[in-house]
Amino acid sequence: MKIYFVYILQCSDNLTYTGVTNNISRRFEEHQKGLNKNCYTFKRRPLKLIFQQEFNDIEQAIFFEKKIKNWSAKKKYALANGEYDMLQILSECRNATHSNYNPKN
Q1: Residue 102 — pLDDT band, cuts 50, 70, 90?
Q2: How many CB atoms lie under 10 A from the CB of residue 58?
Q3: pTM for the model
Q4: Tell me: the pLDDT tens digits for 4-48?
Q5: Helix/strand/coil percent split, the chain, to 5
Q6: Cα three-residue angle 91-97-101, rounded to 5 degrees
Q7: Cα dihedral sign, 66-69-31-74
Q8: Strand, helix or coil at 103?
Q9: Whole-number Å distance between alpha carbons of 24 and 7
Q10: From CA 14, how far away is CA 87, in angstroms rounded?
């Protein structure tokens, strides 16, 4: 059975990179060595692997990667740090046009 990984890297500028692979150590090494000059992480090295999640199904891995790829850096760091209660807080809409928005609370 093949195993797939969704991973989050912390870049030297504290931005994050999210990806999926079937070999986490090889893929991290490729990022760290800067083998692809067009890669998002190339100019942001050194990198730190801050999160990885295993999947048995590539479809599930890709679904999860796409889901968290659009998350804010704060939300990704909360996931990486195991601060699951913060995920809900960081997911709440705080736009002034949102019906639950009340800046006095």
Answers
A1: low
A2: 13
A3: 0.86
A4: 999 999 999 999 999 999 999 999 999 999 999 999 999 999 999
A5: 40, 20, 40
A6: 55
A7: negative
A8: coil
A9: 8
A10: 19
pLDDT at 90: 85
Q: Map out the domains of the chain with their CATH numbers.
A: 4-71 (3.40.1440.10)
Give CA separation, 8 vs 11, 25, 76, 99, in Å: 10, 13, 8, 33
Specify the amino acid at residue 18.
T
22 vs 11: CA distance, rounded Å? 21
Give the whole-angstrom CA distance, residue 27 versus residue 50.
Answer: 14
Tokens linked to 84: 């699951």
Residue pointed to by tokens 């692997």:
49
